[in-house]
Amino acid sequence: MNTLSNQSRTPTLLMAVGAVTVSASAVFIDLSHTSPGTASFYRCLLALPLLGALAAREHRPGERWPTRQVLTAIAAGVLFAGDMLLWTQAIFEVGAGLSTVLVNAQVVIVPLLALLIDGERLRGRYLVCLPGLILGVVLTGGVLEHGVSGSNPTWGTVHAILAAACYSGFLYLLRRGGRHGHIVGSYGLVIAVAAIASLVAGPFWHGVDLAPAWAAVGWLALAAVCGQVLGWLLVARAAPRLPSDVGAALLMLTPVGALVLSAIVLAEHPTALQLAGAALMLASAYLATTERIRPRSIARLGHAPARADPREPRAARPPLRYGWKR
Prior knowledge:
Layout: H1 6-32, H2 36-45, H3 48-58, H4 67-94, H5 96-103, H6 106-118, H7 124-141, H8 143-146, H9 153-177, H10 183-201, H11 214-238, H12 244-250, H13 253-265, H14 272-288, E1 291-292, H15 295-300, E2 324-325
């Protein structure tokens, strides 16, 4: 294993912890027994007080946000709401297995967006590990064992594909918006916009209950804290400091975490193939993140060290920095 500096390790650890923490929100939403619109609206609304307090500590008097960052946050919030609503709807229509497989197409889409829009090259190790990540999520979703279920497989597939597009766009914009600073404030705006969008669009997804039972509110509050406040905020902090394929690979820890937590909390019993898929995803994500990052890769993220003057003596040149790649 390569010896890494603490600065290089930090974003990788933040992204991994954030991905696992996000997985807990799926369990709490299941326990709330609420509609997609209600769950999406309240998990964002209940997160806003905490995010507002954190953003207030980050804000400096007289400091203004770039207009591009504000517009990016608004677009990311709309896409995040679309992802939450469409994916929850797809679960009912096509089953949890296939919907999980399709929405995690982000592991391919997000790096492709970074390649096409930002010119960020894909690393060879990521391309080698990508088939293992895809096969792992297919096995974990249980599609090969249970097939396609649900009330409307055709529309469920359409909704899951649209959810994958929204999810990938949200992740791409979340990563790009964080490069301008004001990470907590920008992310708080994303969640506020997502709450509004969920309230407006929620009636088309089995309605929005503005007065759910207190037990449901409690579960949704836990989903808000684990998902919106802790999980996605960690992802928002880490994503701008990592290559896109690294972040995409680490987010595959979310379905693994959901599988484990569902077995513990909901007393679900994963099959041998599902466990094998989870192990394959973990191994593929690990292998995709243990490559040394060269200075050129770091430069593409906007954190490159100053270029050494070729006329300087060799001993005076700044040391190279390394980190985990996925």
